[in-house]
Amino acid sequence: MFMEKRFYLETFGCQMNVVDSERIVDLLRKSGYRQVDDSADADLILLNTCSVRDKAERKVYGHLGRYKPLKDANPALILGVGGCVAQQEGERLLEKLPYLDLVFGTHNVHKLPELVKKVEGQRERCLETDFLDKETRLQLFPQRTEGDSVTRFVTVMQGCDNFCSYCIVPHVRGREISRPSGEVLDEVRELAAVGAKEVTLIGQNVNSYGCKEPGELSFAQLLRQVHAIEGIERIRFTTSHPKDLSDDLIDCFGELEKLCKHLHLPVQSGSNRILELMARGYTRDSYLEKVRRLKNVCPDIRLTSDIIVGFPGESEEDFAETLSLMAEVKYLDVYSFIYSPRPGTKAAEMIDDLPAAQRQARFDRLLALQEEHSQQFREAEIGKVLQVLVEGQSRQGEGQLSGRTTWNRIINFDGDTDLIGKIIPVRIVKAFRNSHLGTLINQ
Ligand code: SAH
Ligand code: SF4
Ligand code: F3S
To answer: Tens digits of per-residue pLDDT, 250-291?
Structure first.
């Protein structure tokens, strides 16, 4: 009897992996596999991995270890690793983990069905981590028009050429390529036609979109064209690199009504000395100048940031500069990370003698300061009436809907499901750490 084969997929890391995982699901479905929610039911278990910090990488080994007993019990089970750890470790993963069958890199997602067949048929362990040339990558650029959610991600570029000294991403994702603007715009139009109201344009550094393609639109020009597409009511983009945030792009925040008033603009450090060691390509002052311009053209704009604590050689004075920059900008939220040396990066070779306890203490001070700022934002919201794009039913309970403000804050409130997809006014009544509770305003 024909038995449908089942796969289980776990995804770690950033939006790039989320997009690749959608592709994996699609490809495996087309080759006769059905997705299941429990790894114990699967004939194929795949992990799409992240290696941006050591902790993320160790998590992968932890998870794989947990699947070993399943493999022991069922030798026909196929266990595979894709994504950034696969790209970084390649052959070493197969050497370290004798029960692993398959390793596929960040440029090889399209080969997955073929590789799985090979493992199935010949019980041969497979490794595929070659980077592809630009032409092939452009042809394989993910198209994502299935599904019906209100908010959608559209990939506009892949890879990164910035080589910030601490970062593994350029090593595991390869060179930066921009997808032709015609394709991006077609995809947004198709998404609008199936009911999408908000699109987020994504890439590791969307601000440099098109720069290396003669005749291509700049990112600001692309935004203006997306803005003109009927049906799309909100636009976001991520991630921005401060060095490539042009005046033209800043002006978009004053000009384009549909562009949400939130920008994730990772600063990483407030110290010029550390920024230089990080090879970030901007100074504290030039960053702050861009923030001033943003607030000038769009007084309501709110910023979020990534900050690395304890970069090699970070002194108490350097760290104090980071805290003072935070006080000056007043971020809505900061994603902070303790520095983690990554193999093959420049920073991994720098003298790094900061005691772990000191790193942790700085990290805790940074969190405490940010919590003060975040709390001020959260509490200032209470009593306000905000425009919320309703995305769907909330996870909290029956009859409750969930949506976001222009600042990307989650608002839960009671309401009818026919509001899904609409932008409506909601009065904010209570603040929680990760969301607000609101009540519907009768229009
Ligand atoms: N392309 C994006 C995101 C890169 S990874 C950008 O340029 O902002 C997300 C965040 O992880 C980075 O912004 C950085 O703060 C953090 N990060 C990257 N490498 C790291 C490392 N080696 N140690 C600690 N944090 C790191
Ligand atoms: Fe990493 Fe820098 Fe590229 Fe971001 S811009 S992905 S931090 S190298
Ligand atoms: Fe992680 Fe790879 Fe993204 S390292 S952050 S999943 S590009």
So the answer is: 999 999 999 999 999 999 999 999 999 999 999 999 999 999
Q: Please answer whether residues 233 and 423 qualify as being in contact, where contact means their C-beta atoms are separated by less than 8 angstroms.
A: yes
**Higher-pLDDT residue of 373, 140:** 373
Ligand 2: residue of 206, 241, 243, 342 to mutate (most ligand atoms within 8 A of CB) is 241
Q: According to the model, what pLDDT value does residue 1 have?
A: 46
Report the residue among 15, 104, 172, 176 best suited for mutation to probe ligand 3: largest number of ligand atoms under 8 A from its CB.
172
What's the pTM? 0.95
3-state secondary structure of 232: coil
Placement of tokens 């792009």 in the chain: 249
On whether the CB atoms of residues 206 and 200 are closer than 8 A, the answer is no
DSSP state letters, 25-68: HHHHHHTTEEE-S-GGG-SEEEEEE--SSHHHHHHHHHHHHHHH
Residue 350 reports pLDDT greater than 80 = yes
Query: Of all helices (H) and strands (E), which one includes residue 426?
Result: strand 423-431
Distance 164 CA to ligand 1 centre (A): 9
Set out the domains of the chain in order of their start, with CATH numbers. Answer: 5-130 (3.40.50.12160), 135-380 (3.80.30.20), 382-440 (2.40.50.140)
